[in-house]
Specification:
Blueprint (H helix, E strand, L loop, with lengths): L8 E6 L5 H9 L17 E7 L3 E7 L7 H14 L5 E7 L5 H12 L3 E7 L8 H10 L4 E3 L8 H11 L2 H4 L14 E5 L13 H12 L3 E5 L1 H11 L5 E4 L4 H7 L6 E3 H9 L2 H8 L10 E5 L11 H14 L4 E5 L14 E4 L7 H13 L4 E3 H8 L3 H9 L3
Parallel strand pairs: 1-3, 1-4, 4-5, 5-6, 7-8, 7-9, 9-10, 11-12, 11-13, 13-14
Antiparallel strand pairs: 2-3
Helix pairs in contact: 12-14, 14-15
């Protein structure tokens, strides 16, 4: 499953044949999930982008039963548990008053990744939720409990309202890259190199978002290539309130933008909006302490065709080795795939900009490293540090927190 959709992600979990797929159909009022009386119909996590009546656009993740059996069942359960790291909210579906070790384990995982959840007791038309079951649930979690029946759709509106109240605001927010940094009428220069890594006929997401964000803040965009920036400044006399550049041009742009004009990078601004910015700022300084033999984990949150100009797989490793003069080792994990080695094997973790994943997915991806005390950074901040412009690049955001 790839986290390429920035809408709220809602995971549905439970044992086999409790009605997870039927619940999806009830929420969407469409037959979008295969329903069968045969336990184990859903084998792998399936992500569906859809409109939930009363909530709006969302991504529902239908998972295999947590009580799956056999060697294949163990693999399906492992994939189901991986989904927890990628969601904003969880629905734990139970039926027939069955609440035990499987449900307790899921709730423990929800808590581990700070996932808010709701408990739904399905098949109420066959067996009502008993007080003893409610007490068992409340001993494990304070999540809201809703009784439901697929047959009668009883309480479907209650489920939707409970979901609306449970999904974190950060899953819905459309945060601003530059809020608090620029004001109405400010001129912002955006320096966007066009090289072999630039997509044909379009701009990358952080650049597009920056242009829109400037407009949303009633400010003025000036968009130039790095080769034209100095010419523009010298021949117009215009002094931007802020300059934002592609991180790969940091070294060159730092030389041509006067020191009294704030300068940062698209990826730095995006890191502040999408990731654990304070941890990035602190962790990036670890670059200066890297030693021979240190292993660095590069996290790419999307999958793409790799070229020799790939920033995460080739450029950053090459630049770090040159900057530190150390024999460094690098592992790359793409998409939201599992990290194969213990996180403590690494001296540092460097996350990409995260433009193709959600706010929650970035935080969950890095939480293991942060909890273990492994320094974390991101592409833009690392490149700024290597080019000697780290303090300048983070200053606009540090000074406006």
């Amino acid at each position: 499953m790839k986290g390429r959709d920035l809408k709220p992600h809602i995971g549905i979990f439970g044992r086999r044949n409790v009605g997870k797929s039927s619940l999806i159909n009830a929420l969407t009022r469409l037959d979008v999930a295969i329903v069968s009386e045969i336990a184990g119909t859903t084998t792998d996590p399936v992500k569906k982008s859809m409109e939930i009546f009363g909530i709006g656009p969302a991504v529902i993740v239908d998972t295999a039963g947590i009580d799956d059996a056999g060697e294949l069942g163990e693999k399906r359960i492992a994939k189901t548990l991986e989904v927890i790291k990628q969601i904003d909210c969880a629905i734990l579906l139970i039926a027939n008053n069955m609440f035990g070790e499987f449900e307790e384990m899921l709730i423990q995982k929800f808590n581990q990744y700070h996932i808010k959840s709701i408990i739904i007791h399905n098949k109420a038309d066959l067996e009502s939720l008993r007080n003893e079951t409610i007490k068992l649930i409340q001993q494990t979690t304070n999540a809201p409990i809703v009784e439901f029946s697929i047959k009668t759709n009883i309480n479907i509106e209650v489920i939707i309202e409970t979901l609306k109240n449970t999904i974190p605001e950060t899953a819905y927010q459309n945060p601003s890259l530059l809020k608090g940094i620029i004001q109405r009428g400010d001129i912002v220069m955006l320096i966007t190199p066009v090289d072999s890594e630039a997509p044909d006929g379009r701009m990358i997401l952080p650049q597009v978002m920056a242009i829109r964000d400037v407009l949303d803040n009633d400010a003025i965009n000036i968009v130039v290539k790095e080769t034209e920036a100095e010419y523009f400044l010298q021949n117009t006399g215009i002094k931007p309130k802020l300059v934002i550049t592609d991180s790969q041009a940091f070294g060159f742009v730092n030389q041509i933008i006067p020191a009294d004009i704030p300068l940062t990078g698209f990826s730095v601004a995006y890191a502040r909006m999408r990731g654990p910015f304070d941890e990035y700022v602190k962790g990036t300084k670890k670059v200066a302490d890297l030693k021979d033999g240190d292993k660095i984990l590069i996290l790419e949150s999307c999958t793409h065709q790799v070229s020799c100009e790939d920033i995460g797989r080739f450029k950053i490793p090459r630049w770090l080795r040159a900057f530190t003069q150390k024999q460094l080792e690098f592992d790359v994990v793409a998409g939201l795939n599992e990290i194969q080695h213990p996180i403590t094997d690494y001296a540092m973790v460097i996350q990409c900009g995260g433009c193709m994943v959600t706010h929650k997915q970035v935080f969950s991806r890095l939480s293991g490293a942060i909890d273990a005390g492994v320094p974390v950074s991101n592409y833009g901040l690392t490149i700024a540090y290597i080019n000697g412009v780290f303090d300048r690049a983070v200053a606009p955001f540090i000074n406006n927190q």
